[in-house]
Amino acid sequence: MINTLTNSIKDLIGILLxxxxxxxxxxxxxxxxxxxxxxxxxxxxxxxxxxxxxxxAIPFMLLGVFVSALxxxxxxxxxxxxxxPKHAYLGLVSAALLGAVFPVCExxxxxxxxxxxxxxxxxxxxxxxxxxxxxxxxxxxxxxxYAFQHDLTVLYLRMGxxxxxxxxxxxxxxxxxxxxxxxxxxxxxxxxxxGSVSTMKRSKWKQTFYHASDEFFDMGKYLIIGxxxxxxxxxxxxxxxxxxxxxxxxxxxxxxxxxxxxxxxCSEADAFVASSFSNQFSSTSLLAFLVYGPMLDLKNTxxxxxxxxxxxxxxxxxxxxxxxxxxxxxxxxxxx
Length: 336
Description:
Helix 6 crosses helix 14. The protein is built from 16 helices and no strands. It is an all-alpha fold. It folds into two domains: 1-38; 44-335, no CATH class. The chain is globular and about 60 Å long. Helix content is 78%, strand content 0%. The chain crosses the membrane at residues 12-32, 44-69, 89-113, 125-148, 154-177, 219-237, 252-274, 286-307, 313-335. Belongs to the UPF0718 family. InterPro entries: DUF318 (IPR005524), UPF0718 (IPR052923). It is found in: Cell membrane. It is a multi-pass membrane protein.
């Protein structure tokens, strides 16, 4: 009874926050005038960036949670085990190739991978899919092509590095964590494992929409927090000041990786932002921005922490950062 009441209160708060967001989005000027509030241009810019991040991410997150719910309702553990590669290392390549056909960004792929791991997908395959899908999918390839028509080497290197680095990161995480379970389990999920949820008399389609809505509100709060933090930092960040500190390629690469983490752009749109830095940063540092951001940024870090154990996330963050940085220095060495 208490759990039901608590969940109802959480759902009500979530709905109210969502309604407040819609009101502020549609009538923000009228609200400010009504309460006679006066904000600086920087905070108005933060508001615009915050809304743009949410508008970019929410459609893809909806797609992700719906696909996740479909997997929960229609894909059995036995069916998944039949199609999964048996070899722990060769399967990494298959997982990277699978990422190339998922038309989803970094926000959408997290619930999908989480659900697949809960269904029995090995952890290392899930890691590869998390890394590969936001970079290799066809929408990202097309947007990168249009943004860098003057230098298609950026497109080729982005796709190639996305493929190989995802495999390397998956390999490293497998060597460290093996086949151990690194997912966070909620109390409701643990109860569900004992069979109480499976006894709920819903059709599979009803179950799909139930799981999708539940996961959307669950993920939504982390997305909103991450988007807000990213928009605040982005709104007050002086990009020209960053460029003035650069003295070598390693610094440029590190700065652009940090910028990719902070800005938390959707991978379907980040190529156009990266191209706007072409006059200030080198091609290698722009490539670092395009490869690192989809794998790790501020908003998906919060999502990782929500659904995976803290130690696993910290090791994953370090691995992504180290592998990406070193690979960019190698690219700079061989292509320049």
